[in-house]
Amino acid sequence: LFDRVLVEHGKRELVSFQNVVIGALAMVVSLIIGMLLFFQRRLIAPLLDLVQQVKEVASGSREGLSIAGRSGEISELAYSFHDLLMAREITAQGLAKFQRVVSAVKGAQLAIARNKTRDFLFKEVCRALLANHEYCLIWIGLADEGGDVMPVAADGATSMSNKECEACMAILLTEAEEKGLEQNPAALAVRSKAPVVRMDILAEIPKGLLKGTPLADGHAACAALPIIWQNTVYGVLSIYALSATDFDPKEMELLEGLANDLGLALHTMEGQQHLASRENLHGRLFGALQAIQLTLTPSGSILAANPIFAGMAGIGAEQISGRFWRDFLAPVQPGLTSDTPGLLEKLRSDEGAELVFSGSTPVRRFLCRVVPDQETGGEPEQLILVGYPLVRQEIAGNGEACMRLEMIASLAGGVSHEVSDLSNGLINYAQVLADEEQLKRPGQPQNELLRKIIEAGERIAEIVRKFILYGREESQAAGEFLPVATVLEDALLLTGYHLKSEGILVETDFEPMPPAVPVHAQHMQQVFLTILASVRAALAERFAGRDPRKKLAIVTRSAMDSVQGRVFEITLVDQGAVIPLDSLAESVDIKGIPVRGWGRMFAVCRRIVEDHGG
């Protein structure tokens, strides 16, 4: 019985425990189901709805996310993701914009490196910067001493025609000039030597003026950057952009660097032009002085030679390079040789040393000096040997003086006859005029006679003036430079009597408007007078008396040479006796032409012409 009671009690306790467990499990399950239902409504459903909205936005059927009224946590999460994506997009856009600016600036820097002239440089820089499509107009101006800016290059976006670009430039520059300095970013940047940015440069410009241009919306930003190098302002770079977000600090930093590169390029161009001008001047001076110049290594090897030296050596400049200066020049002073150690020191002294050009006929002597060209660490890398002619100048001067005296003597008779004839004419006309005055018959004939007297007097004055100009000392006419066509006409005027009296017909075909090629009047007149005198002698030898073939044809014309470009050509043709070509280098007379050293005279004339670049 007791056992049965215990069993029953145990069963009741077990059943009671099972009921408690089952109830607890039911409560737990109910709680879980409730929580699932709660999270399903508060989390899962909004997430699913958010996913659906994202898909719709991605497909384009929805403009944006709508999460109002949703769970706060989900809204915050969604907004965080949204802000993160927006920030990423903004960063990507900013990076892309910065990359466009970097690419445009790099293209402009490449243009600076490629172009060697200022105008092409400015055009290519403007074009390169317009690779950034956010820029609509770019122009570069040069600054004058007063700080005013004059545009020299401008370019617009590809959507802007040249006419629209010119219209925009005219409006912007006119408005800037009328509104004063504060509304003129370019002038303000030049004056302040600092970049100037105007975020709404079109604010005060009536939109009607901008109608039909890419700036018709009336909104644009402008950045003016001074082109400056070593505190020298060369000009200004003006950039116009349609976006208000342009010209941030990073972008301005890049553009400032570009403006500085432009300043350096202009500074370099000025230096190169100045250097080229000085080199050209030095070359012309050396050519006029017939001075030689060699660039040497410290050991004496020739690196380069000027054309005067190469011409005297009779070989090309490239064949001279690599040889030693001792191969061409030898000392004149007794006891010195090219190998003497003290010769180089003497050449480096202020007195220099006298050297003779080896193997030249006639002998050419030069007063030479050696100066250092470049120095690094105190040691010269190159030496410059300069030599000024001594003997040749004396010989040439004596030869020219003799020729001048001979030509003056030859001209004196003819000019005297010309003056005599004209004087007789003046006397006769004056006598006729006096007779008319005595008879008191004023009228047109007297005026005509007076005009003839004036013309004859002017001709006398012109002939005498030309004669005096050629006959005076060279030092008095050293600065007399005239066009070569004028000198030729003067020579014909002086020799006109001789040619006419000897029955020589002169046929001229002169270019109506010849180029003004300046020459030393006295020297070049000597050349023409010598040639005309030789023509007279050659024609007189071949044709005695008057002959229809006894004539001289003179033609002048401008022509194009494959090497020298545009040249002025003077051609004199006659059918007289032949002058041998090899006589140009000899001091001999032509057979059959008495006491005339035409070879020597022509040699001097040829040198004069070559000294003038002819």
Give an overview of the whole structure.
With 614 residues, the chain is α+β, with helices and mostly antiparallel strands. It has three domains: 106-270, GAF domain (Beta-Lactamase), CATH 3.30.450.40; 290-389, 2-Layer Sandwich (Beta-Lactamase), CATH 3.30.450; 394-611, 2-Layer Sandwich (Heat Shock Protein 90), CATH 3.30.565. It contains 14 helices and 16 strands. The protein has a six-stranded antiparallel beta sheet with strand order 7-6-11-10-9-8. A five-stranded antiparallel beta sheet has the order 2-1-5-4-3. A three-stranded mixed beta sheet has the order 13-15-16, with helices on one face. A hairpin with a 5-residue loop joins strand 1 (135-143) and strand 2. The longest helix is centred in the first third of the chain and has 58 residues, at 2-59. The chain is elongated and about 185 Å long. Mean pLDDT is 77; it is low at 391-396, 475-479 and 586-596.
Low-confidence stretches: 391-396, 475-479, 586-596
Largest sheet: 6 strands, antiparallel
The CATH superfamily of the largest domain appears as: Histidine kinase-like ATPase, C-terminal domain
Q: Roughly what percent helix?
A: 40-55%
β-strand percent reads: 15-25%
User: What structural class do you assign from the helix and strand content?
Assistant: alpha+beta
The number of helical runs is: 14
Give the end-to-end Cα distance, rounded to a whole number of Å: 156 Å
Q: Nearest-angstrom radius of gyration?
A: 48 Å
At the first level of CATH, the class of the largest domain is Alpha Beta
Q: How many discrete domains?
A: 3
Give a count of the beta strands, DSSP E runs of length 2 or more. 16
CATH architecture label of the largest domain: 2-Layer Sandwich
